[in-house]
Amino acid sequence: MGVCATDAYGVFEEVGCEVGNEITYNAIIAGLVNMEKDEDALSLFIDMQTVGLRPTALTFVSVMGACLFSKIASQVHGQAIKMSFEEYTSVGNAAISMYSNCGELDAARLVFRRLKEKHIVSWNAIIASYAQEYLEKDAILAYLQMQREGIEPGEFTFGSLLASSELVEVVEMIQAIFQEKDVDSLRKVVLLAGIIWLSASCDLFSWMMCERLKGIRHMEKVVKKRLWYPLVSGSVYTGVDFCKKLCGVSLVRSGESMEIAL
What we know:
Elements: H1 3-14, H2 22-34, H3 38-50, H4 57-63, H5 70-82, H6 89-101, H7 105-114, H8 120-132, H9 136-148, H10 155-164, H11 167-179, H12 185-202, H13 207-212, E1 222-224, H14 225-232, H15 236-247, E2 250-254, E3 257-261
Antiparallel strand pairs: 1-3, 2-3
Helix pairs in contact: 1-3, 2-3, 2-4, 4-6, 5-6, 6-7, 6-8, 7-8, 8-9, 8-10, 9-10, 10-12, 12-14, 12-15
C-alpha cells in the first residue's frame, strides 16, 4: 500500500470508518488532483475499487483531471463508459478537458459530439480545446454554434476565444459583438476585460487596432473587483494605459470596485 493509500486510511480511521466509503474516497481524490498529486489520485482510484467500492460519476470527474497521458486517459474513460457514466454531462465535460490536456483533440471532439446535453461548461471545454491547439477558426465556429443553440457565453468563453484567435479576427469579432443591439452592457464589459488581459499579458495590440475599437464607450461604469483585479494585476500600468487608449476612459480604484471614469 502506497503512502497515499496509507494517509487515506488514516483519514478513514479519524472519521470512524474502517475502510471508508465512496464519499470519503471522492473527497480525497478531488483534493489530490487539486494539489496536482496525479499519481496519488490515480493510485487511490485503483485502491477504492480493490476494497470493493464502486466509483461514482464524481469520482470520474475528479480522476480525469489527473490523467495527463493518452493511454491512462483512454483506460479511465473506457471504464466510465462501461459503468454507464457516458451519458452524464459532467463526466463528458471532464473527458473533453482530459483528452485536450493529453493532446487528443479528435477524442475530445468525439466526446463532445456524443453529449446528449451540452451546457455552457461543455461548450467552454471544447472551445478551450481548440484554443489550446491554436485552431482559432474552429473556436470561433463553436462559439457561433453555441449562440445559435441559445447558450449564453461567459468570461471563460471569451478568454479562450481571445487566446486562440489572430488579432485581426479578434478585432472583427469584437466589433461585430459591440454592434449587436441585443448585447447587454455587462457582456461587453466582460469582453473588454478579456481584451485588457490579452494586451497586458502580451502587449500585442497596435495603435491601429486601438483606433478601430475607439468607439467602445457604452458600458457599465462600475465593475466588481473580482472581474478587474485579476486581469489587471501583474501589469497594472499596461492594462490601465491600454484601457485609456482603447476607450478614452481611465480606471479608478474605489474600495471594493474599479470605477470606469468617462
